[in-house]
Design a protein that fits this description.
This protein has 25 helices and 22 strands. By secondary structure, the chain is an alpha+beta fold. The longest helix is centred in the first third of the chain and has 24 residues.
Amino acid sequence: MSKEKNMKRMKELIQILNEAGKAYYSEDREIMTNYQYDELYDELVRLEQEEHIVLSQSPTTKVGYEALSELPKENHESPMLSLDKTKQVEALRDFLGNEEAIMSWKLDGLTVVLTYENGQLIKAVTRGNGVIGEVITNNAKTFQNIPLQIDYKGQLVLRGEAVIKYADFEEINKKISDPNEKYKNPRNLCSGSVRQLNNQITAQRKVNFYAFALVRAEGVDFHNSVQQQFLWLEQQGFDVVEHYRINARNVEDRVKYFSEAITKNEFPSDGLVVIFDDIAYGESLGRTAKFPRNAIAFKWADETAMTRLLDVEWSASRTGLINPVAVFEPVELEGTTVSRASVHNISVLRSLKLGIGDSIMVYKANMIIPQISENLTKSDNLEIPSCCPVCGGVTEVRKVKEGESLYCTNEQCQAKRIKSFSLFVSRDAMNIEGLSEATLEKFVDRGFVKSYGDIFRLDRYYEQLVQMDGFGEKSYENMMESIEKAKTTTMPRLLYSLGIPNVGLSTAKIICGDLGQNPQVLMDADVETLSGMNGIGEVIAKSFYDYFQRKENREQFMELNEILSIPKQEEKKHTLENMVFVITGSVEQFANRSEVKSFIEEHGGKVTGSVTGKTSYLINNDTTSTSSKNKKAMELKIPIISEQELLGMV
C-alpha cells in the first residue's frame, strides 16, 4: 500500500475510532463491538509504525475524553494513563521475564479514585479523561460495599472500578418497557449511575466498588509489594479485585483459569491486568507518553469460528420492534455450543451484507455473548420482511437512536397483545400476581382475554380455568384475590399499564401531576400542552397524543376507569405560594435544576433566572460562594438557602 493510501486510511480510522470512543466514554452508548474497535485500533497502530507518523487526533496518543456533565471537575494529582495491551500469552511471558507479578481482572465499569483522611471518605473522583475527573463523593457514599470509615487515620488514595452486577443490570432493564430505551450493557448503566446528580438514583442502581490500585498510604510499609498493598486494603474493609501471584512459568495456567471463570462472573470484565509485584522495580521502568511500563493489559484473543448462516429469524415484541436473530450451523466457542446470535437491528444487518448460506465468523463478546464479527462471502441477498412473522401485518423500517429498526404496524398483532397484557399485570402497573406471560398466552388463545378489561372478568370462566393443566382451584382463588386487590389503583399506574410508547411510570406521574386524573382531560391533552411540562419532550408528548387519537384506545381507557377504583389525589399544599426563587450552582438532592424548578412550582412557587428585589430566596448549596448571584442577593439582603432548607420549608 502506498504512503498516500496509508495516510488516507489512517485519517479514516482516526475519525471512526474517535467517534466510537466518544460514544462509549462520554455518551454511554456503543456504535461498534469491542472486537471491531480492537481490530481497527490495531490496524491504526500498524500503519503508524509503518509510516513513523502519528496524527494529532489519533486515539493512540490520547488517554480518554472530556466528561460532559454538570458535575464539578477536579485535576488528578497524577495522570491516570491507559495500559498497553496484548492478546498473546507469549507476550505476557516476555513482559514478565524473571519477575513476579500480580494478575487480576480488568473490570468493565467506571474507574473511581477515593481519598480518605482521618479514617473518613472525603472525596471520590471519576477517571474522566485521565487528567481531569468528575467529583462524585456523595454518589460514592451510596455504593453497596464502600467503607465510609476505616481504621487507618493517615491519608489514603486508591483506585478501583465501580461496576454493576449482571443480575441487577437485567432487573433494571426489565422495568424499561421500550426496547430502544433499555441499557445496552452493565458498563453503560454503571457510568450513568455513578455520574448522577441525585445520589438517590445512584443508590437504587446497586453499584459495587472493587479496589485495584493503591496510590498512597502515608507511613505504611508494604514491603515493596503490590500483593501486600492488596492485603492491607482488604484489612481496611475494601473489596479488592480477584488477583493471583504469577510468573513466566505459571502465567498460561492463570490465564486459562480466568478464561474459564469469566463465564461465571457476576460482573463484566474485558480482560486481565498484570502488574509487577516489586513496586520499586516497576517504578524504575518509567512510562511512555501514554502507557506506564510496570503493567500491561491482557485482552481476550476472541475465539472465533467459521460457520454457515442457515436463517435469520425475526422476533417480534410488545412495542412492535422486530429483531433479527442469526441462526447458523452449531459451532464450539469458549467451551459451549452456539448456533444463534442477535444481529441487533436493520443497520447492523445491512452493514454485514448477510445472505442465507454465507460463510460468517462468529465469536463471544467478552467470552459470553455470541456475535457475528465478519461476513466472508457478503452475498447480501437477505430480504427485510414486509410482513410481521407473528400476525402477517405490514412492517416498516424506522430510524431510532442506534440506527434503523424494523417494526410491525398492526396494532392487533398477537405478539403485541401478549406482551401488552404482560406489562398490564406487571408489578409497576396493575400488580396482578399469578398471571405469567405463559398463562396469559393460554388465556388469549382460548379467547378468555381479548382486552385489558377482560382480565377483571375472568371469573366468568371459572369452570374452564380450574380444569386447565397446572391451574387448579387454589391458583384460581389466588389470582382472583390479586385481581380484586388490583381494582384499586392510581391514575399514573393505569396510564403506565396501557403500554403507551415512551411513557414510563415516572412520565405518567408528571402528566397526572399537571393534568389531574380526569380521564377526558387526559385523553384530550394536545402535544403543545404535554410538551410544555417539565420532563416531557416532544417525542413523549406525540406518543401520548397519538395513542388517544385511536378510538379503540379511548374506549378501552374509559372502560378501565369504570371497572377500577381510583382514589382522588390529595390536593398539594401550596406552601411556597407568592414566593419567587432563583436557582444557582450544582444540585445534590434533585437530579437537575429542572427538577428543583418543578418541585417549587408544584408547591405554588415561581422560579426566575435573575436575582431582583422581587426575589424571595436564592437557592445555592454553596451559601458562601462569591458568585455574582450570591453577591447580588447579599446586596439586596435576600436569604441564600440550600436545597435541604428548601425541602424543610415544605
